[in-house]
Amino acid sequence: MTRTFAVIGDPIEHSLSPSIHNAAFKALNLDCTYIAYRIPRGELKEGIESLRQIKISGFNVTIPYKIEMMQYLDESSPECKMIGATNTVSNENGRFIGYNTDMDGFLEPIKKRNIGISGEDVLVLGSGGAARAIVAGFAKEKAKKITVANRTIQKAQELSKFASDLGAESDHVALSGIDVSKYKFIINATSVGLKNEPSPIPTDMINSSHVVYDIIYMPMNTDLITQSKKNSATIIYGYEMLLGQATLAFQIWHKTPAPYDTMKKVLLGGF
Ligand SMILES: NC(=O)c1ccc[n+]([C@@H]2O[C@H](COP(=O)([O-])OP(=O)(O)OC[C@H]3O[C@@H](n4cnc5c(N)ncnc54)[C@H](OP(=O)(O)O)[C@@H]3O)[C@@H](O)[C@H]2O)c1
Predict the structure, then answer these.
(1) Could you give phi then psi for residue 176, rounded to 5 degrees?
(2) Is this model's pTM higher than 0.90 or not?
(3) Can you tell me which atom of ligand 1 is nearest the CA of 190?
(4) Fold for domain 104-236?
(5) Which of 112, 190, 211, 230 lies in disulfide reach of 126, CB 3.0 to 4.6 Å?
(6) Over the stretch 212-246, which tens digit does the pLDDT of each residue have?
(7) How far is CA 235 from the centre of its chain?
(8) Alpha carbon of 200 to those of 59, 161, 261: distances in Å?
(9) Which CATH number fits domain 3-100+241-269: 1.10.3290.10, 3.40.50.10860, 3.10.20.30, 3.90.70.10?
């Protein structure tokens, strides 16, 4: 019987996940399908019930449901509990088990480049759901200090407290007037750049000692990335995190390594 997978969210029509996963099914000859399923805001409970009824094999969760979905899980992984959000659910004999592959999906491209995190200073721009998974990742990898900057300062303060609660040294600063020279890693986890806006921070002090990682994947070359590249920083693209979380979700569901190159090709072709 064909196994069905989905990504839920609202809006969902622009999600690249169906293309990525369906290409992987084809490459590995798996009798599976993956659909985008819009659950209108305020209707998550009913939406989840319908997924149970059709015996969905697994699904990804995106904006705005990553936190709310936690209450509909029968069980959750340690990462999921730590971050307080889920992006991947597996249906195991009728039980919905929650995972969070955003954190390790984010870390994967850093590890792939053999860039050490332990003992390094990190600047995270943004304090939304994605920033939370990123902060948890840097805390897990024993960054020296995690500085959080955000437009709404109170949220930066809360995220910094979250980092401290995970055992990391952390502080928070305003988004304006940041001195980037102090940090090895500069991460953009705000949505600034999605509409080709100028970088959320000045880029003139960015240099070859920096690792600049913009998690926005469309456009691929945000202003922050373009300017940092000109200044010879090490660049990590948002699509790499997207692929990282997708391949880890694939492995949870299918218990086999994901065809990374196939998934990357279809993703880059989608831009
Ligand atoms: N590559 C990937 O796999 C991946 C995964 C997840 C998310 N993302 C991307 O990451 C971004 C953030 O996602 P999210 O889920 O964390 O969203 P979110 O929870 O809505 O958080 C958005 C963040 O952006 C900030 N922001 C929004 N507009 C701003 C502006 N004009 N100036 C300064 N800051 C602004 C918000 O600051 P305030 O707190 O002040 O509102 C908040 O910190 C999105 O662009 C998303 O596409 C990528």
Answers:
(1) -90, 150
(2) yes
(3) 24
(4) Rossmann fold (3.40.50)
(5) 190
(6) 999 999 999 999 999 999 999 999 999 999 999 99
(7) 17
(8) 33, 23, 32
(9) 3.40.50.10860
